[in-house]
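Service request form, structural biology core

Requester: graduate student, group of Dr. S.
Request type: structure prediction, single chain
Budget code: on file
Notes: please return the result as structure tokens.

Sequence provided:
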Amino acid sequence: MNSEILNPTSLHRTSRRFAEIVKRKRWLNDGDRILVAVSGGPDSVALLFLMMEIAPTWHLDILAFHLNHGLRGEESEGDAQFVRHLCRQLGLTLKEERAPLAKAHGLEGKGSIQEKARDVRYAAMRRVAENVGARKIALGHTADDQAETVLMWMLRGAGAAGLAGIPPTRSGLFIRPILDFRRSEILSYLRGKGLSFRSDSSNSNIRYFRNQIRHELLPTLQRLNPGIVRVLGRQADILREEELWFEEWTAETISRLGQFQGNGDIVLERDDVLALPLPLQRRVVRRLVCRLTGTHKAPSFTTVSDVLDRVVRGPSGSTLVVQGIRVERVYHTLRWSRESHHLADSMVFGGGSARVPAEGLEVSIPSIVSWPFTDQAIRVRVFHSQAGQPPGSLRTSPHRAWFDADRFTTPLRLRTWVPGDSFQPLGMQGHRKKLQDFYSDLKVPRSSRRRIPLLVAPEGILWVVGYRSDCRFSPTASTRNVLEVEIRCPQSRKERVG
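Core staff response, request fulfilled:
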């Protein structure tokens, strides 16, 4: 290690302010292992040396991390070589990874390649930090980066979350210790220490939106207000605190109003949502989508408005799929669910990928049949009843139904609903009812209807499983052979039929 560069007695003014910020924000604990992301550029090199300067006081164990995307060919390789040489000089352990981003990786035409690179980089840093036991990952974003980010989101029409800019900390793992420093301060620090760094040629490419802001818009604003970087940083701080408060309010609202289903779906009463202020309605929609996707990437303002206009304020049955999450109005309720829960609808008649053939599953007697769309095990058997004395307990329930086995023929099948299906529901004096109308009367969500199994004989539907049986096949006083159909818990699937 170069003791002259890292001599605590020659600390630069930037070094003292850096130490004060770290102490005030209480990001570090004595003896922490810290992973510092080093690209080779001025900001990350300065951050690495600033962290090294405070390391003796805090007894920090510093490790460096570098990821090479290979986006700039030989220039990228030069960056990696520079970081390796720097770490050898400092006696630091370097965790280096390669993650090339190119057409071969399917990233072309799928959003900004910079966004893809960032996602890959953050995932790699998390993985390395976990492997080496690093408590924090230090990133070299500056006040100028913050100002550019705020302006980018402002021009895109973002709300408070976007205008809050770059957070000083993220997920309790990432920290940005030089976010309060101007880029000019960082360059001055490097010159004062006689430190070299790499320059990224892509930072001068005006075709990138951020570079247009950096080289064209921000200098213009600085002529109007020399303190614009500080002003935008303060604005981000204010909006970040307000955004945290709004997010807590939104989370409390969802906790209070939401009905959390066992399959992960979330249901809210439509009137409860409509009674909320419009800004809170928007936040509830965004928060629920993020919650079910497990990401922080919220839907756009336009998408949220579509959900409110077309689903929340739309007719029953209205549906939109947002980032893989289905938002559906089901009569007086609003349901958020993962789209994967509804794939059964398209899989039933879906060729080679279907789990159930179009004609359904043949049901032998006796047997236990698995119905994959609802994760039910359905047990079928026949027993003999004494003529003239049918068991008084033969009453259909949501979990069990009985039928006169001599009133229908085989084979029996389990299949899903198709348009035109009808039956004569028990209790309706023999009146025929279309299954679609039956579901509507019971307010069964459209998204669930084609997952409900139907037990069908050649003569017609015996049972809408879990709902209602057909009166034509009900046991009577003269019934001798009774077909018993029972919905069993998943663990009963291993049971052997005797």
